[in-house]
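Lab notebook, bench 4. Still working through the backlog of constructs that have no structural model yet. Next entry is a single chain of 560 residues. Request: give me the structure tokens for it.
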Amino acid sequence: MLGFLGATTLMLVAGAPWVLPAGGADLRSPENVMVSIIDDNFILKWKSSSESVSNVTFSADYQITGMDNWIKLPGCQYVTSTECNFSSIKLKSVYEKIKLRIRAETGNSTSPWYEVEPFIPFQEARIGPPDVHLEAEDKAIIINLSPPGTKNSVMWAMDSSSFVYSLVIWKNSSSLEERTKTVYARDKIHQLSPETTYCLKVKAGLRSPRKVGVYSPVYCINTTVKHHLPSPENLEINAENRVYVLKWNYTYENVTFQAQWLHAFLKKIPEDHSDKWKQIPNCENVKTTHCVFPQNVFTKGIFFIRVQASNGNSTSLWSEEKRFNTEMQTILFPPVINMKPINDASLRVGIGAPKESEDKSVNQLYPLIYEVIFRENTSDTERDVLEKRTDFTFSNLKPLTVYCVKARALIENDRWNRSSVFSDTVCEKTKPGSTSQAWLIAGILTAILLLPAVIYGVKVLSRCINYVFFPSSKPPSTIDEYFAEQPLKNLLLSTSEEQTEVCFIIENTNTITAIEETDQIDDSHSRCSSQTNRDSGVYSNEDENSGSKIGEEILQQAAV
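Model written out:
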């Protein structure tokens, strides 16, 4: 482990030496003092400034922020070399600030103290190489990595499962064909050739805080002879409606297959997880190169899937593991839109789940938002809004106007920007405005008020029309009385019934001949009206009262 100190040593800027009375004129403080921390190894290095003085030793002290006194630094007392290991220091936390000082000593003489700038161990620490263990297959190498540091590491106690490992592998015969990839602590390197020597090296790193370690030594291993039953290849998984379809390629016939899955987070734990693989339902002893299983087998997250072939008692090695992210496979169906008018200026929109997603699994796993496109039916201008609600209102609209809307579902804060297709377009008309309603009510009230006058006018018009265009075939009684004989009456009347009419005085334009009352005229006909000879001679068959009224009107008109 210490062999890598030279490549990873950190030099801490030293402050001006804190000078104390020197015990000897030729004994000076150490120079070029450096602190190097790799994993849990704390190394203090310096250069002696008193080579001419014999029997010189060096001692160091430390002080933690908040302490008033200095404590002897363990492993760094009366050191004859120019470095010391103080890994046994007792710190409450690798995040607390520490100060160091060192001096030279010989006999009763000491040099001034050389004080190092305060530092935080975790910030200055470098990541060492992981331990590597390899196993070979015919076309793959199984790699097992132990995190940097000791088993009970203090420095990386909080980060042992957060390490990211970078691997470089190449054929031993050619270092020009290097492949670099990121691997887990327990992983497998595929796409290799049988009976071939491969060499590799690995380094560990942290993303937060960002730290990069050093590479391990180079390890080499030979792959085995080609296995007689090959492994399935080219795994692919897709979501279809509410199921997953797992497919793979295989050239041999008369074999069966089984598929297993594993939580991806287990890969980050630096331990053996071979017993944690689980069987996928409906994917055991299948004779086809695919299997179908429900989506509820997997919760939200990332998984690994592998497939193995069997032929009797013979089985293949497991296939290359397929990384599977359920978020990437989520299918969003278009929502169902419902819209109805509230008043003359507002439309209410409701968004519902389609029948294809009645199980609401997507809604339970992911918060959805909706992109809504709203426009007037006769206009190309659109309003594009995002809504988390499934019930909202568009306002400030025109009365009696058709508006259309469509929407699609999106997963909120989704880094892949997944969305459904747009729903069917739904259109609806707003209600009439308040002004139109007022005019309608006013029109109805006016019609109600004018109805009696209209009916009366229609009646009068009907009488006039009947009087002018449809005269009676029976003469008035005043004329009928001069035709006493029945035969003459038959010529004028269509019925034998005698009618009693009001008498008229026929006036000449120049002279008026008066018809004197006689004893033969009935008392009911004693009053007579006069009419000019300009009368059309058409007589009404109305009853006596109506006939009298019409006669009076005609006389008044003639008098004028």
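Notes after review: The first helix runs from residue 5 to 8. The first strand starts at residue 31 and ends at 38. Flag for follow-up if needed.
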